[in-house]
Write a structure and sequence with these properties.
By secondary structure, the protein is α/β, with parallel strands linked by helices. It has a domain of 158 residues: Serine Threonine Protein Phosphatase 5, Tetratricopeptide repeat (Alpha Horseshoe), CATH 1.25.40. Helix content is 56%, strand content 8%. It contains 23 helices and 8 strands. Strands 3-2-4-1-5-6-7-8 form an 8-stranded mixed sheet, sandwiched between helices. Strand 7 and strand 8 form a beta hairpin. Helix 16 packs antiparallel against helix 23. About 1% of the residues have low confidence. This is Signal recognition particle receptor FtsY. Part of the signal recognition particle protein translocation system, which is composed of SRP and FtsY. Belongs to the GTP-binding SRP family. FtsY subfamily. It is an enzyme of class 3 (hydrolase).
């Protein structure tokens, strides 16, 4: 008679009873890092290799290559040498053994699984780019034409155009590279000025000053400098070049924990967008909508910032530019009512993604809190488990003030990710490191230019490499 009160089995218990559930093994890996290696192995095996991309992304996010290596032999036995070579290639790439990684990916690209074959070739192209071998990278990109999975089309286009720019194959400058977008921050940091010097106290003092000026933040800067001092003493480093390589690797290690992707795992997926006026919230929504539409998603915008008539008009312009539907109401309408109408529209037409614009009146925090909670309640009632994303838009130009805004919004509601705009227009790009260090919120998007394609997924490695890129000599 008390069966109603039985405890719901845990995910692990459910999988023990019925292990043939690859998606749930993947979920377990994402929720429990200690059990992730075995869970990722099971996700891969029980999916027959179909979840190779999701397993690879989770492996990269958790940085558990060493822990996963004992499973490679079993993977080879179950799925073939191509799969084990691919994951071994990822481990070698992480360790900086680029030639070995390339050789392993070369084995994996022969897979009969089109997705694994693509991923292996794509990794080879990216390695060539990292080594400055742009002619080889371009050749691989050309070979991949017509074979690119939908979810990779945008990234593929960005990288291919970057290579074309390097080789002078484009008639005009089509796309801004990440390194170009970070020029002002790179100039402010001036890390190349530290090369060829001896490691002494004055070097640490100057480095500390530069990091703070670039808005890395006092706490993060002190932690970085203390780490460098300890390691320099421990490793008996004499050259500043060695110290800069150590700094580069440490920054990558910090930022890899803040990597994140927009969650579109459910249909429909609701993205609730927050941010104060002037940070580029409407522009970010418009660019994201256009990119998603180009990737094959049907997108609807909800103009729930009804406090300002201009906000509705601006969103209308972007909806028209992106070629997506917009649900709106007159100024002063209850924002939750607009969201409800948008949800009914999404249900009726079975759309994939709903992006909700909200007001950003932080000066009236109590009212904003009630408004956001009401919107979330409506979304959760109509689409259980949603919103999939609560995205906070911050302006990189505001430096440390962006941290204050994020803390204020976190008091209002959960935040699942950050979109950092105007990174190309500021010398304060170090704020990325401060956000990661202090807020521990994934940075999912960064804006490095005016064009639609200049809103990019955040890539920690590319960001750090952009900070250390040396300007070509004019002599």
């Amino acid at each position: 008679m008390f069966g109603f009160f039985r405890r719901k089995p845990s995910l692990k218990e459910e999988l023990k009873k019925n292990p043939n559930q690859p998606e749930k093994w993947l979920k377990l890996a994402q929720e429990r890092e200690k059990e992730a290696p075995e869970a990722l192995y099971n996700a891969l095996i029980y999916s027959g290799g179909e979840l190779v991309d999701s397993v690879a992304k989770t492996l990269k996010n958790l940085v558990i290559y060493r822990e996963f290596e004992p499973y490679l032999e079993k993977i080879e036995k179950e799925l073939g040498k191509e799969y084990s070579s691919f994951f071994e290639g990822m481990a070698q790439e992480y360790r900086g053994n680029l030639q070995a990684a390339r050789n392993l990916y070369d084995v994996a690209r022969n897979s009969a699984n089109p997705l694994l074959s693509f991923l292996s070739s794509y990794h080879i192209a990216l390695l060539y780019m990292k080594e400055g071998l742009y002619e080889f990278a371009y050749k691989v990109f050309k070979e991949l034409e017509g074979k690119v999975p939908q979810e990779y089309e945008f990234d593929y286009t960005v990288k291919k155009r970057e290579v074309e720019e390097k080789l002078g194959l484009t008639g005009s400058r089509i796309l801004k590279t990440f390194k170009e977008g970070l020029k002002k921050t790179r100039d402010a940091l001036g890390l190349s000025d530290f090369r060829g010097r001896k490691v002494d106290e004055s070097l640490f003092e100057e480095l500390e000053e530069r990091l703070i000026l670039a808005d890395v933040g006092v706490n993060a800067t002190m932690e970085l400098v203390d780490y460098l001092k300890r390691e320099a003493k421990k490793r008996k480093l004499k050259s500043s070049d060695q110290l800069l390589e150590l700094l580069k690797e440490k920054l990558k290690e910090i930022l890899v924990n803040c990597r994140g992707e927009i969650n579109l795992s459910e249909k429909p997926s609701v993205i609730l967008v927050l941010g104060v006026n002037g940070v580029g919230k409407t522009t970010t929504i418009g660019k994201l909508a256009k990119q998603l539409k180009d990737r094959g998603y049907s997108v609807v915008l909800a103009a729930a910032d009804t406090f300002r008539a201009a906000a509705i008009e601006q969103l209308e312009v972007w909806a028209d530019r992106a070629g997506v539907r917009i649900v709106k109401a007159s100024e002063g309408t209850d924002p939750a009512a607009v969201v409800y109408d948008a949800i009914q529209s999404v249900k009726a037409k079975e759309d994939d993604v709903l992006i909700v614009d909200t007001a950003g009146r932080l000066h009236n925090k109590e009212r904003l809190m009630k408004e956001i909670h009401k919107i979330k309640k409506v979304i959760g009632r109509e689409f259980p488990g949603q919103p999939a994303e609560i995205l906070l838009v911050l302006d990189a130009n505001t430096g440390q003030n962006a941290i204050s805004q994020a803390k204020a919004f976190k008091e209002i509601t959960d935040v699942t990710g950050i979109a950092l705009t105007k990174l190309d227009g500021t010398a304060k790009g170090g704020i990325v490191i401060a956000i990661c260090n202090e807020l521990k919120i994934p940075i999912k998007l960064v804006g490095i230019g005016e064009k639609i394609e200049d809103l990019r997924p955040f890539d920690p490695e590319e960001f750090v490499e952009g900070l250390f890129e040396e300007e070509p000599s004019t002599q």
